[in-house]
C-alpha cells in the first residue's frame, strides 16, 4: 500500500487571496543613511505606524526582510474580531477586574476603528460586518463559552449569543460541533486588497519602503540607533520593531 499524499490533489502553493490580487514585490528605493523613524516590518502594524508618522511630518523608512506584506498580513483568514487572546479569567488573574474589562473593551474599539479607517481611506477590501460563529469542539468548550458570555462587559448585550447543539444546524448546517457562540459584530475582509490599499497610501505619504532588507543588529549610537541591515546601515532617532512572530533574535524583548 502506497503512502497517503501529504496534500490534497488541488493543493496550491500560493495564497488564495492572491488569485484576484497578485502579490506585489515593489522594487523599493535604496536604503537611506538616516531617518527620523525606522520601522522594521512592513505588515499591517508597520505600515499603519509609518502612515501616521509620515503624515505627522516625520521622515519615515520601512524595511522588511522579505517582500512587502509577505507575512501574515496577506496570508491570514480575513476574520476581523474583537477578540483578545487571554480569556476573562486569565485577564482578571493577571490585571484585576477593572483593567481586564478595559482590555476587552479595547478589543471592541479596535474593530470599530478598523471600519472607520477603511471608510476614511476608501480602501476597497470587501470589508463587511457579517458576524462569526465560534464552534465548540467539546461540551467543556461550550460550557467555557457560556461562562465567558456571562462575564461580558456591560453594554455588550446583543453582540453575541449562545447557540446550543440542538440549534447549531441553523447556523452551520452540521451537527459536528457541540454548539457555539455567534459573535454578531465580527467582520471580514480581503487581506490582500486591504494590504494593497495600505501600501498605496503609505507610498503616497512619501514613506520609503525597502523590501528584502533584513535587520541584523541594533546598537545605540549617541542620540540615534544604528540599525545594521543586509543592505547597509541606517541611523534613526526612533526604531519601531513591528515584526511580531518573525522577530527572531533581533530584539531580546
General description of the model:
With 253 residues, the chain is an alpha/beta fold. The chain has two domains: 29-75 and 192-242, FAD/NAD(P)-binding domain (3-Layer(bba) Sandwich), CATH 3.50.50; 79-189, no CATH class. It has helices at residues 44-55, 88-95, 97-121, 139-150, 169-172, 191-204; strands spanning 34-40, 60-63, 79-80, 128-129, 132-135, 160-163, 180-183, 187-188, 208-210, 215-221, 224-229, 232-241. The strands form three sheets. It has a six-stranded mixed sheet, with helices on one face. A three-stranded antiparallel sheet has the order 3-8-4, with no helix packed on it. It has a three-stranded antiparallel sheet with strand order 5-7-6, with helices on one face. Helix 1 packs parallel to helix 6 (191-204) and helix 2 crosses helix 3 (97-121). It is globular and about 65 Å long. The N and C termini lie far apart (50 Å). The model has no long low-confidence stretch (mean pLDDT 90).
Output the strand order for the largest sheet: 9-2-1-12-11-10
> Residue share in helices?
25-40%
The parts where pLDDT drops under 50 for at least 5 residues are: none
Number of E-state strands: 12
Largest sheet: 6 strands, mixed
Q: Outline, from the CA principal axes?
A: globular
Order of helices and strands: EHEEHHEEHEHEEHEEEE
Q: What is the distance, rounded to the nearest whole angstrom, between the alpha carbons of the first and last residues?
A: 50 Å
How many helical elements?
6
Mean pLDDT: 90
Structural class: alpha/beta
Number of domains: 2
**Spatial extent as radius of gyration:** 22 Å
Question: What is the percentage of strand-forming residues?
Answer: 15-25%
Amino acid at each position: 500500500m502506497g503512502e497517503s499524499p501529504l496534500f490534497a490533489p488541488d493543493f496550491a502553493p500560493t495564497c488564495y487571496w492572491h488569485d484576484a490580487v497578485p502579490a506585489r514585490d515593489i522594487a523599493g528605493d535604496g536604503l537611506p543613511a538616516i531617518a527620523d523613524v525606522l520601522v522594521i516590518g512592513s505588515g499591517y502594524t508597520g505600515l499603519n505606524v509609518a502612515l501616521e508618522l509620515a503624515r505627522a511630518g516625520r521622515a519615515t523608512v520601512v524595511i522588511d526582510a522579505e517582500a512587502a506584506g509577505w507575512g501574515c498580513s496577506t496570508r491570514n483568514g480575513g476574520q476581523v474580531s474583537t477578540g483578545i487572546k487571554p480569556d476573562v479569567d486569565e485577564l482578571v488573574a493577571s490585571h484585576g477586574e477593572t483593567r481586564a474589562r478595559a482590555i476587552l473593551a479595547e478589543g471592541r474599539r479596535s474593530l470599530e476603528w478598523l471600519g472607520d479607517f477603511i471608510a476614511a481611506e476608501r480602501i476597497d477590501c470587501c470589508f463587511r460586518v457579517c458576524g462569526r460563529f465560534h464552534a465548540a469542539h467539546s461540551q467543556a468548550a461550550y460550557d467555557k463559552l457560556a461562562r465567558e458570555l456571562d462575564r461580558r462587559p456591560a453594554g455588550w448585550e446583543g453582540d453575541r449569543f449562545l447557540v446550543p447543539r440542538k440549534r447549531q444546524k441553523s447556523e452551520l448546517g452540521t451537527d459536528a460541533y457541540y454548539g457555539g457562540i455567534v459573535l454578531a459584530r465580527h467582520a471580514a475582509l480581503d487581506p490582500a486588497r486591504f494590504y494593497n490599499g495600505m501600501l498605496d497610501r503609505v507610498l503616497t505619504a512619501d514613506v520609503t519602503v525597502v523590501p528584502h532588507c533584513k535587520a541584523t543588529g541594533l546598537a545605540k549610537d549617541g542620540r540615534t540607533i544604528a540599525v545594521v541591515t543586509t543592505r547597509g546601515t541606517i541611523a534613526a532617532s526612533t526604531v519601531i520593531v513591528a515584526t511580531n512572530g518573525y522577530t527572531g533574535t533581533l530584539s531580546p524583548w
